[in-house]
Structures are given as C-alpha cells and as structure tokens.
Amino acid sequence: MDVKKKKILIIDDDSRNIFALKAVLTAKKYTCLVATSAQEGFNIIQKNDDVGVVLLDMMMPEMDGYEALAKIEKEPALKKIPVIAVTAQAMTGDRERCLQAGANGYISKPVNVEDLVKLLEDYL
C-alpha cells in the first residue's frame, strides 16, 4: 500500500497539539484522523482498517497513554498498528518507559517535524 494512503491517527486531548500535528502532517501529504481520547481513538480504529500508525499522547485524562498501551496489548486488532508515544514530559527514562509499555516509537514535544517524519517512514 502506498505510504500516502495509510492514515495517521492522532490521539491527544489538547486541540492545539492536534491542530499543529495535523497541519504539519497534512502539508507532508499524510492523511490524518483525530481523537481527543484513547477510547475515541479505539472507536476510530475499529471503523478504519487503513490506520497505519497512531500518535498517542501519553498524558491524557480518563485513560492516559500507558493505560491505552496496556489495552492495545490485549486487543489483536489494535496490537498490529504501530504506536508512537508523544509526550511533553521529556524526562530521563520516559522514552524507555514508553517503549517498555508497548510503544513502537517515541517523540517528545515540541515535536521536531523531521524526526517525526523519519519515525513515520519506519512504520508507514
């Protein structure tokens, strides 16, 4: 499948982050879907079999990224989709913690666009 046909699902509770990520990725010719909660993201995945990667905010109310990753690990339909953890808490050990929790990749906020595109190319 062509890279540009796979969709990127952005799960973030902050509309400003969604706006910025979607604007940058759309400019790079990616198609984006958005969810403001992990549960909404799971619902979108169930309705779209062409989600190629998930950008998951790790710090959200209700269900944070770590809880979402635990749920993804238990669901075969979700587990096959790579997840890139996105966090503003770029502290020592965060990257390792996210990867150990089941994320396939990690990027900190503010997001470096070149780094993000390189990560996406690994998974799309």
Find the count of extended strands (DSSP E, 2+ residues). Answer: 5
Arithmetic mean of pLDDT? 92
- Main sheet attributes: strand count, strand direction, barrel closure: 5 strands, parallel
> What amount of the residues lies in strands?
15-25%
DSSP helix count? 6
Report on this structure:
- With 124 residues, the protein is an alpha/beta fold.
- The protein is 44% helix and 21% strand.
- It contains six helices and five strands; from the N terminus they run βαβαβααβαβα.
- The chain has a five-stranded parallel beta sheet, sandwiched between helices.
- The longest helix is centred in the first third of the chain and has 13 residues, at 15-27.
- The radius of gyration is 13 Å and the shape is globular.
Keywords:
single chain; 124 residues; alpha/beta; 5-stranded parallel beta sheet; 5 strands; 44% helix
